[in-house]
Amino acid sequence: MARQKNYKYKQRKKGRILKKLALFFLFFFVVVAIAGAGLFLYIIGDLPDPSKINDRKVSESTKIYDRAGIVLLYEIHGEEKRTIVKSDQISQHLKDAAIVAEDFSFYEHGGIDYKSIIRAFLIDIYRGRLSQGGSTITQQLIKNSFLSTEKTFTRKIKEIILAIKIEKQYGKEEILELYLNQIPYGSNAYGAESAAQTFFNKKASELTVNEAALLAALPKAPSYYSPYGQNKEELTARKNAILERMRKVGFVGKDEFEKAKSEQLVFAKQKENIKAPHFVMYVKDYLEKRYGADVAENGGLRVVTTLDYDLQKTAEEVVEKYGEINEKKYKARNSALTAVDPKTGQLLAMVGSRDYFNIENDGNFNVATSKNRQPGSSFKPFAYAVFFQKGYSPDMALFDVKTEFSTNPDEPYSPDNYDDKFRGPVSAKSALAQSLNIPAVKVLYLAGIEDTIALAKAMGITTLEERNRFGLSLVLGGGEVRPIDMAYAYSVFANDGVKNDESFILEVKNSKNEILEKWRLKQKEVLPKNIARAISAILSDNSLRAPVFGERSPLFFDNYQVAAKTGTTQKYRDAWVAGYTPTLSVSVWTGNNDGAPMEKGGAGVAASGPMFHEFMEKALRERGSENFIPPEPILISNPLLNGEYAGETKIKIDKDSGKLVTAKTPPQKIEERLFREIHTVLYYINRDDPQYQSWESAIQKWLVDNPTFADTQLKAPTEYDDIHTDENKPVLTMLNPQNYSAVPESGLSVKISATGRFPIKEVDFFANNMLVSSDFNYPYETNLDLSSAESGEVVIMARAYDKYDNVGEVSVLIFK
To answer: At 102, which helix (H) or strand (E)?
Structure first.
């Protein structure tokens, strides 16, 4: 009974707990429902009227200024272009292209693509930030017409609600028409009609399949994908991807697809109220990546850049002036110039081509930031800097002689100099200043390809990523670089080895005058100070480069100390001058955007040199200049690695033969002589190096072909003494007495015969190792008085010497 009562008590207690839990959860869900309803009412409380979708939200233009904050370089959307047209006035190709590019299920959903939203939500959760939109065309229409660009869940909910409302209020064709009249295509063009007129100078109804696919590619990132911008290859790839999708779903047939893909698009000439256009588009692209396209275009940003507008105008003037001259002289249709401040890393001027608005000449293409320009010999200073870092002296002799560098006979590599001449021994500093190729390849080999690439990268070269494809030709410009990178990398030499981070924006403020970013000096030493100064001393020494470039080349300045290096690639495809002072670093490129060769003679000093000279002259006149600090001498103890090209060596030789001594060489015939020999540097560093034989044989061949240099050396013998040998010893025969004979009472007569390769000059006679007489003339004989000798054995010996002191002996044993 007690057990039953206890059970009932537990059951009643359990029931009370369950009731409490039920009440709690009921209360919780009521609160959540009320809160959710409140949030929903709050969200929808200020929703705009979808019927006013044609009234596009007001946006503030972004303004880009020069470094003084005075000159307005560009006002993004300052002159918005829009023409509203009906759906039947828009090419069906563009409608199809927009659907495959932006919203493939447009005709199936009710404004929301739930699969895309869930996928985007999961990605956002994974990344911990809002980035994936999953937006349909309807949602994009809402975003561009009513809502802000901020990425919040609240805004997303509003977008979804409005999209559903729009879908109920408008038909699909109406929504697509509204979208194609609202969407931004870049270059201030809003809507299909304005975009068609802006980019192709035609109506939206007249667009071809290829043109429609290109326009459909733009809204994703109008500035980045601009046909007038830097990223044409990416734009073309996106356009072709859209065409491929149109083919797969049957919007275009196979033949039409192939024709469209191969069609050459012709863009209308761009004219905008824009100053320093290449620079501005460079900044605009950055703003779009940093803040998003919508904020960059409509956020009312105030951007103060690093551009020196006076310097920019000078750059534009000289590029246009000499661009016209170079086109006539060398068939070089384009040029680029970039200038930076070595002390701050700030970009001061950028001209990416002769005329930004000349589309026929690819003027909108920014060569300054192009990644596929080979630098020619302007890359050499990086290798020489590593070479000096490893202890080699600027005065070290390098042999400028025809040399085969490849160790693979199937892939020969034997470069020539620009003038097809070979100079023999030259100092490293002269070889760099005169831009000699063979010494430069040797310098790169001794410096190391990997270490040279590492230094170039540390100094600002951003393009040499595939390191395994670079060989010794790298030092002659075998890699690709960006002109802007060359200006920054050379600025490290100018700034005593200290690299400043690239910067082109001083300050960005939003429409509320809040600072979003501000420039700060960021620097790091990437090259020892004295090495940087050594390079500057070489590149600014006119006397060093004069033998090749002349006393008054475009690299010479009467009133300023300017370091400069030229570069010319094969078939004159690229002509460079990169140079600097402590206050200004400049790179100048001349050539054709498509890589077409220039006419012969379009070398760096000829095609880019005058442009570089005039720009630097005017810039330094206005900005002032400083002289370089001289370097401390880079000296090493080994004179052969410190300027001497003939090595001194003491060697023991045989006086008679003039050859190396052997164990048979008489001591009195040995002497030490001083020899001066000419060898490759590897002779003194490592004769087991795989390059040693080819470098050494190349030098020795050059010495044979240039006998005047033989006077500077006394070459040590390589053969051994062949006079003092066993074969050349005099051969003696004892004629009297006979071996084992007895000494006669009347005395002993000793006679010998002596023959040999060389004349006998003396014969000595010995009795029991005591010299008793000598004979200098044939016949060789003597009489010995042995009366005082003790009885027993007596050894009689004759020793002959020839004219070179070769020695022959003969002896007999007699009895007394």
So the answer is: helix 92-102
Residues 224-249: what's their mean pLDDT?
Answer: 87
Task: Judge contact between 417 and 438, C-beta under 8 A.
Answer: yes
Give the CA-trace dihedral at 95, 99, 100, 103, to 10 degrees. Answer: 170
**Within a 13 Å sphere around the CA of 522, how many CA atoms are in the beta-carbon half?**
7
Write out pLDDT tens, residues 748-780. Answer: 899 999 999 999 999 999 999 999 999 999 999
List the catalytic residue out of 102, 167, 297, 696: 102
Contacts of 745 (CB under 8 A, 6+ apart): none
pLDDT digits (tens, 9 = 90+) for 140-150: 777 776 655 55
Contact between 800 and 763 (Cβ < 8 Å): yes
Q: Give me the residue label for tokens 């999961």.
A: 122
Please state whether the peptide bond connecting residue 759 to the residue before it is cis, i.e. omega within 30 degrees of 0.
no
Nearest to 706 by CA among 421, 465, 282: 421
The conformation of residue 807, written as its DSSP 8-state character, comes to E
Those residues whose C-beta lies under 8 Å from the C-beta of residue 127, and which sit 6 or more positions away, are none
Calpha distance 807→801 (Å, rounded): 5
Report yes or no: 446 and 393 within 8 Å, Cβ to Cβ: no
Please confirm, yes or no, whether 811 is among the known catalytic residues: no
Is 102 annotated in the active site? yes
Mean pLDDT over residues 442-455, rounded? 96
| Backbone phi, psi, residue 793, to 5° | -80, 145
Pairing of strands 505-509, 515-518: antiparallel
**Can you give the pLDDT at residue 627?**
95
Could you say which DSSP state residue 745 is in?
T
β-strand pairing of 189-190 with 81-82: parallel
6: how many CB neighbours lie within 10 A of its CB?
10
pLDDT digits (tens, 9 = 90+) for 92-113: 999 998 898 888 888 888 767 7
E strands, 108-207, are 184-186, 189-190
Q: Which of 377, 435, 587, 694 is catalytic?
A: 377
Number of H helices, E strands in the chain: 23, 26
Residue-wise over 196-214: b if at least 16 C-beta within 10 A, else e? bbbbbeebbbebbbbbbbb
Pairwise CA distance, residues 133 & 135, whole Å: 5
CA distance from start to end of the chain: 155
Beta strands in 638-779 (DSSP E): 646-654, 670-678, 731-736, 748-755, 760-767, 770-775
The tokens 């977008």 sit on which residue?
159
